[in-house]
Amino acid sequence: MRADWSTFWPKVLDATGETVYMVLITLALSTVGGLSVGLALYATRKGGVLPNRAVHAVLGTFINVIRPVPFIIAIVALAPVTRAVVGTMIGTDAAVFPMTVVATFGIARIVESNLLSVEPGVIEAARSMGAGPLRILLTVLVPEALGPLVLGLTFMLVALIDFSAVAGTVGGGGVGNLAMTYGYLRFDTSVMVVTVLVLIALVQSAQFLGNLLSRRILRR
Amino acid sequence: MTAPATPGGPGQPVIELRDVRKEFPGGAMAVDGVSLTVGAGTVFGVVGHSGAGKSTLLRLVNGLEEPTSGSVLVDGQDLSALGERGLRPVRREIGMVFQQFNLFRSRTVLGNVLYPLRLAGLDRAAARARAEETLDFVGLSGHGGRYPEQLSGGQRQRVGIARALTTRPKVLLCDEATSALDPQTTGEVLALLRRVNRELGVTILLITHEMEVVRGLCDRVAVMEEGKVVESGEVYEVFARPRHATTAAFVRSALHSAPCTAPRTGRCWSGCGPATRGGWSPCR
């Protein structure tokens, strides 16, 4: 062991805090964005509540262009945009931007597929009561799909913890950065082990909370 | 060809279909030149096999389907003249009940019944009072806090009926409302629908493939086959003197339980139960 643990532990705490910050901010922003894009995608599909072929095709294509790009490439490719939007390309705030972009389109697909699993009969019932498209989306579809939606968001939350570690390797801060600078560049295996354990603990807690919440919503 | 309008029974006409056609993309003619009138306060049944066009016919009445030609009038108002937005207030005057209940699983019983009231713009307190009152009418007071999956099929359908009725519509559309229920529960739901008609004066248009439902509830009946009304009239008349082979088969199905002793009048086994189908080719 080469690390001085008395100075190292505060670093682990700080890095964990940074990771949690990046992940939660990203989750909040991309949930809003992903829900909007996902609802638009769902509503505009053929036979949807607001069918619009052009909008649907544009959104679908855009998502399919963004999603296959490996995250580490996305960070680099988005760097100029990140600098324009955030003002810098380094640090936790700079990492939030590409994470949010990628997560938004991931969540959009999750939202779309969960909304598609809502029974059409329920939508027909709401239409028969005189509900308009926007109201059906927000007061019928989202509540009816909320249980699986929360599980989908939990899946994305876990992916974001992974993303944040990747962002750390290219100057994003957080646990990933710690693992990179102390564990990898200084060949300190014990630091690597600690950071991996921290990441596992974060993922476990996220999944636990997500499961708990969705079970409560689904009442089972 | 314009079929002669089916007289709708007593009262002012509430629903009028004038030579309505509905063709789906791909050329399937679900409804083929149907004219019928449903008078105020009537219980009107449309009976037919699956695929006869009944469901489409029902959905034309609240604008969930748009006719390819012909016109649909509800309370004298031509639905085709209204856009999707213009249809919304009309739909609030027409309740709809479904075979699979289509309740909101994310909402409690009370939440389900509140939904159309909030949609109609009632404030929270007024909506709640009205919803409680409606739940009481369908015999579910005290069940407001439960969720649909905690109810039996018959209770779920009563929630469906309460949800459809709570805005006090003039018309109730029933899409095979009892087809997912066992005979005992079917009886209870039919009794409730009868009260809806007699006590609240709601005009009911229902579709079913069960002639027992027609016999137990309806004043008038129309028999549909391949998108057309092949026979219609007072239920009593139709039962006493069916003129069309399909009608005769349906009447037999209501009058006789298995074994089916009726002579072979059609080309298929539509009139008899599954056990007596041997040797007959099924109806499409």
UniProtKB/TrEMBL annotation, chain A:
Keywords, comma-separated and alphabetical: Cell membrane, Membrane, Transmembrane, Transmembrane helix, Transport
Residues in ABC transmembrane type-1 domain copies: 16-208
Transmembrane intervals: 20-42, 54-79, 85-108, 136-161, 190-213
Subcellular location: Cell membrane
Gene Ontology CC, one term: plasma membrane
One Pfam family here: BPD_transp_1
CDD domains hit by this protein: TM_PBP2
Keyword Mitochondrion: no
GO biological process: D-methionine transmembrane transport
Membrane topology: Multi-pass membrane protein
Record InterPro entries: AA_ABC_Transporter_Permease, MetI-like, MetI-like_sf
Family the entry assigns: Belongs to the binding-protein-dependent transport system permease family.
Protein known as: ABC transporter permease
Record lineage: Bacteria, Bacillati, Actinomycetota, Actinomycetes, Kitasatosporales
